[in-house]
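Worked Example 4.2. Consider the chain below.
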Amino acid sequence: MSDVEFSKTTKIYDDGTHALDSLELKINEGEFLALLGPSGCGKSTALRLLAGLEDITSGEIRIGGERVNDLPAGARGLGMVFQSYALYPHMSVRDNLEFGLRRAKGGMRVDEAEIARRVDEATEMLDLGMALGKKPKDLSGGQQQRVAIGRALVRRPKVLLMDEPLSNLDAKLRNRMRFEIRRLHEMHGTTTVYVTHDQIEAMTLADRIAIIADGKLQQHAKPLDAYNQPANSFVGSFLGTPAMNLVEGEAHNGVFRAGDLSFDLPEHLAGWQGPGIFGVRPEDVRIVDSGGTRFRVGGVERLGGEAIYHLEAGGHWIKALWHRSGGGLSSAAEDHAELNVSLAVPTAVIFED
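Applying the procedure from the previous section yields the following structure tokens:
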């Protein structure tokens, strides 16, 4: 295992596109880090630069303290798992697992006994014993993904790279594979960099997440720290389902105003003066019997155990999340056309951006 460090790492394509802009990021040895962001934000570019599949425009990347800018991909000691499993269709599962070890050169070569030991270990770890003689076409999507992970792990990589590995799976299988990937990391402890646009994957899998937008690092923190203390409005709105409510306006003397909408700020924000973006999580919106701000119920999404209320006041829309087991909304609110809403909750924030 090794740590990984991006130092002012920049990638500019020939057409002038800044795919990655002075990335500063440290991934500790044995850590599971998720690179999270929307499509085109630069997260996969960062992974490809780390893997040696693309050249760096400027800056450095270090693996285990060694500068790897000019090292070819095969000399970096990495294991890679991608959205496309890239299994050899004419080979059995065992042959797919062994292939990389048999093609290794120099100091990375191992003898037949070690190949067998590593493959057996991966087979047991990934529950592939009954599939070793099968071809990829005879496997389920989850089994193919486990073979791809096993093929990377048997090489004993310094760092394991995973780029959207669950995107081709259905929702039920994604949930199962998230659990299995996290379990494998806890068993094996390999430093892992996991690229995803799915904030649920990032929140449930990673020790820390690095959120990227427009080629720039927005926040690097533990998942719950980023959720509870977002660095800016982008992070606040990107993490969470439904997304954080954001209202742009100005605060004066403990009151926040946005056009025709105004409401009292929570105590911890009462001293804020001037423009800002008020943010509050949908699950923290409170319905009150009196006081608060009058909102019109514009629609309700009933999802079984919870419901999402779309509320409007002064031309501004917010969402409120009600869990049937308890939360901000009472069951009596379901039939109301208008509700009194309190936004003065302890978790609310104001962003300067």
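The two ends are 38 Å apart (CA to CA). The longest strand covers residues 18-27. Compare this with Example 4.1 before moving on.
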